[in-house]
Amino acid sequence: MNKQQGSKNLLTEPFIKFFRGKNFAFLGTVNKDGSPQVTPTWIDIVEKEKEKEGEDHEQIILINTAKDRIKQKNVSKNPRVSISIVDEDNPYSMITVKGRVIEQTTKGADEHIDKLAKRYLNADKYPAHSPDVKRIILKIKPEKIFYIPPRYTEYLQKNK
Amino acid sequence: MNKQQGSKNLLTEPFIKFFRGKNFAFLGTVNKDGSPQVTPTWIDIVEKEKEKEGEDHEQIILINTAKDRIKQKNVSKNPRVSISIVDEDNPYSMITVKGRVIEQTTKGADEHIDKLAKRYLNADKYPAHSPDVKRIILKIKPEKIFYIPPRYTEYLQKNK
Predict the structure, then answer these.
(1) Which of B62, B35, B38 is nearest to B48 (CA)?
(2) From CA A71, how far away is CA A81, in angstroms rounded?
(3) Tens digit of pLDDT for each residue in B69-107?
(4) CA B68 → CA A54, B36, B73, B134, distances in Å?
């Protein structure tokens, strides 16, 4: 199996497609009792603004959740996350990103969930806005990437 | 949001479809450094044989992995797992099962991966058998189920 590990530019091929399609990310966090938690979620990635001229660009993964959801509470205690995404065109191609929540912000979070709803649902606005739900963006710094290129293509073709 | 929690019969509707389709399960475990790990995997479910007459049937989730894979090493240290599956017909319908690996066995594991390859790939045999890989079935006892019925159907219809 051809695997690639280490730090990569997630905004280039073959990685970028995992963050631009309609496929869900499965976010792993750790509960306060030490058990694991996995939640399907929409996902986004952006280039972080450079703080100084000449600095390398840095990519930040964004997950839009709500205050007091299990994953938000978990990452507030233990910021380490694992994100698994399979390719919608070939689910045997996959990426896993280990990373860390470096910031949580409510700023722009309502607009950001609208943007994700457009991409994932083709909805003009996120259909589940509620005054009782305070949306929060989790900003995740990728630390380790594990990628598997497409496999079993001949079987998937045959089963179409 | 209509949520159902608690212990349920996973071999009945609406739960059974998550374990019989081609959708992957995303298995969450905890690494030895306390960080989370998520891996996409094939999944199966069986009825455990009754040990005594009159006993309730018990369902066991089966995940077929290989010796020394990260998930196998993780559950050998910390048997708690979280399994997340989205419905292939409506990814906004999902099930999360919290559970515990109660047994690991190599017995029947090669035949079992062939059975899964038939279901997922329509292959006569698992295409990646290797003498260097010792397959192992993880037997998981479900402890807590969280289910979300289909949502956003109108958007999914419109985008077809």
Answers:
(1) B62
(2) 10
(3) 999 999 999 999 999 999 999 999 999 999 999 999 999
(4) 43, 17, 6, 9
Residue that has been written with the tokens 């479809």 in this structure:
B17
Amino acid found at B11: L
Is the CB of residue A93 less than 8 Å from the CB of residue A87? yes
ipTM here = 0.92
Check CB contact under 8 Å for B28 and A37.
yes
Residue that has been written with the tokens 């698992």 in this structure:
B126
Evaluate the omega torsion of the peptide bond into residue A14 and state whether it is cis, within 30 degrees of 0: yes
Handedness of CA A99, A101, A102, A106 (dihedral sign): positive
Chain A interface, mutation test: which of B5, B31, B38, most A Cβ atoms within 10 Å? B38
How far apart are the CA of A116 and the nearest CA of chain B, in angstroms?
14
pTM above 0.90, yes or no: yes
